[in-house]
Amino acid sequence: MVLKDGEITLRPVKMRDQRMWREVNRRNRDWLRPWEATVPPPAPGGPVAQRPTYRQMVRHLRSEAAAGRMLPFAIEYEGRLVGQLTVAGITWGSMCSGHIGYWVDQDVAGRGVMPTAVALAVDHCFHRVGLHRIEVCIRPENGPSRRVVEKLGIREEGLRPRYLHIDGAWRDHLIYALTVEEVPDGLLRRWHQARPGTPPEIK
């Protein structure tokens, strides 16, 4: 599945992205480290978890996608890879929900890339996949990420103390959420209407 709006594209993560993915991550190491998930220390006598290789990560993403539990996307801007967005924790049955995580190259931050990518993913989840609710969990200190969801009008629901292991410790997270009833015309359309100037063609 490829989702596109103007110069911004969401597409499957590929094995051949490895060189560019590593290069973008290397340049953004200091920018991303405070917000990246980490593995907590093992229990006494327990196994030590290792950070997966790129190939292991892609195989895991594909396996979870095939099982219907995840939608992993690479983000392209003007034809080059600039980040990643993953809809994870997809639950069906009486819940029909998932949560979105993302990162983006600092070089393109502030250009509307991430709000557009999130809006594309949310619309796909609601109107094609059939989910009812999407959450985005963000550390209170992560101002740039909070601005993404606030620009989109995704509402804040509250604080989950020590919710995820991030940057070496258990961190509090603010929960932002949206249901399909709140954006009957699509989140991407609402985002374009909120931006100054003429919106690009919606594809």
Give the second-level CATH assignment, the architecture. Answer: 3-Layer(aba) Sandwich
> What CATH first level would be assigned?
Alpha Beta
- How large is the count of helical segments? 6
Report mean pLDDT, rounded to a whole number.
92
Straight-line distance between termini: 13 Å
The H/E string reads EEHHHEEEHEHEEH
DSSP E strands, number: 8
Q: Considering the protein shown, what is the CATH homologous superfamily? A: Gcn5-related N-acetyltransferase (GNAT)
Helical residue percent band: 25-40%
What count of structural domains? Answer: 1
Q: Please give the radius of gyration in angstroms.
A: 17 Å
What does this structure look like?
With 203 residues, the protein is α+β, with helices and mostly antiparallel strands. The chain is 30% helix and 31% strand. The protein has one domain (3-40, 47-194): Gcn5-related N-acetyltransferase (GNAT) (Aminopeptidase, 3-Layer(aba) Sandwich). The two termini are 13 Å apart. The chain has 6 helices and 8 strands. An 8-stranded mixed β-sheet has the order 1-2-3-4-5-6-8-7, sandwiched between helices.
